[in-house]
Amino acid sequence: MSSGLNTEQLRQKYLEERDKRLSVKRDYIDPVGSFPDFDRDPWIADKIEREPLTEDVDVLMTGAGLSALVSAAALHDAGIANIRMIDVAGDFGGVWYWNRYPGVRCDIESYVYLPLLEEVGTIPTEKYSTGKEIFEHAQAIGRHYNFYDKALFQTKITEARWDEATSRWHVSTDRGDLIRSRFLIGTSGYLHYPKFPNIPGIRDFKGKLFHPCRWDAKYTGGDSNGNLSGLKDQRVALIGTGATGIQIMPHLAKSAKQAYLFQRTPAAVDARNNRPTDTHWFKNQKQGWHAERMDNFHAVITGMPADVDLVDDCWTHAAGPLFKNAQVIDPENELAASEAMQLRDYQTMQGIRDRVDRVVTDPATAEKLKAWYNLYCKRPLYADDYLESFNSPNVRLIDTDGRGVERITETGLVANGEHFEVDCIIVASGFQIGAYEPATATFPIIGRDGQVLAEKWANGVYSVHGLWASGFPNFQVVGTILQAGVSFNYMWLAKEHALHAAAMISRALTEGMASIEVTKDAEDRWNDEMNRKAQDGTKFAEDCTPGYFNNEGDTSKPVLFANTYGGGAREYFGILQAWRDGGFTADTVITYQK
Ligand code: NAP
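A: This is the predicted complex of the input protein with NAP.
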């Protein structure tokens, strides 16, 4: 196929760039205990003082982020009101509570990402909402449903333990609370637990160092809109070119005396084209439009047949055509289909590289900002102000040719053998995946016979539908992709999981169930089904530049998407529906109240 691109040369270039990064040690450290600021909540003025609480509820949610809110709303709709949400944060919002760094914004269209828009009556002001707007919507959900009375904030769960004698979850907290709940919904989030790069000397830096999810606004001045007045005399280093780093960079360019971006891998950043909401259009949407739009977005970006592209944005334009072939693969002609897909990817990425030349005025800097890997090796990024940052005279790109920062000293950073003196280092190095595995579990969930969920899942999630686990009765996860269907629109998944949990709990309460638990056998069957449907992405992952999608390049272990349901999210939702509509009794052991 002729494309004007030298595909063989590109293939070689991608592999060379990958190899540079694979040859460098890429490990991370746990922030707890390493960085004193990490355990501090920068967003609360005062710690709430209160007496310990002892109570009985029907459902307890482990968190108060968007997954917990959609779960609570689904329970509300099912008539279940005796609920509790517990969160270490000071308010609703989860990641949108914590991440208030300058430029924070959701890169998925607000009309499909924000949950419960029709119910609450929120009209997002723009096609892509700011983090602040999402946080405020979370608060609005809290007010709309009167959930503030149901939440315990500034409270850390220390343990959730199944009590066999009473068929209750006993949930303890660092405030001395004991809450006995018939059901537990795991809403602890999925990309919330930060990781720091294990750069030699990182703990020795004497200036200011923080992760964006604990942004120090007292130091930088300004807020999530920028205007970082505190940085006007400061030299600031930013590490990280992921979704977070590229949103912060333009604000450092505007406010800091000197801003350095330490780049290990260039980001592939296409235009976002954000725009204000047409409120007339929004108000004239017909009932049910929201669910329809979420479903259509998923269909289009995964290349499924769809009559219309409702979202019609950078995601659907890039991914739709890319995956079209994957959906219609003719087994006789699989090779041709995958070659066509690869060619489209080369073309898309070339478009993104050409854009760098158009935006960045210094040709040498532009060259270093070009990404040489397939689009889906990393989460695709969209921004209209990131590349522009490098045209500011106070900004310098420190490209490390794949090696990353070598060392951090008391006064700065070393890269390419050069020492850079700085006052502040912002470490936008990402998050651990998951919430119930050893690296990310912030409290033990202890099921039957003392079994700890993080230990059961130490080598990967093993479950029914990613949501239920044998040995853990009356417990369901909401908001995961591991052993579940996957979508780039996380809230679409969380909403479906929440409906599932509410339907199951409602049935259990109505029928007087004391406990419902999936069998080991059902887990084995789901695992077999996962394997049967698995799409072999090993070759793709191996060819990719390292990142969190491919275990930082270690493909000896299953990579992220290999742990997701290969039949796609729509098919997965159908499985959940069929399960709750009848067939689940074959997969579960149910006991009834005496
Ligand atoms: P990330 O995508 O994992 O990026 C981490 C960055 O840190 C990478 O660029 C990595 O370099 C860099 N890094 C790590 N160690 C380094 C070292 N020693 N030297 C130099 N660079 C180093 O993390 P993130 O940007 O926080 O995003 C994580 C996820 O959060 C996103 O993918 C997205 O799902 C979510 N998020 C979403 C939004 C949104 O708009 N919806 C906004 C923010 C975050 P390499 O590239 O070389 O690995």
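The pocket of NAP is lined by residues 105-107, 191, 197, 199, 239-245, 262, 264-265, 379, 404-405, 428-431, 547-548 (CB under 6 Å). The mean pLDDT is 94.
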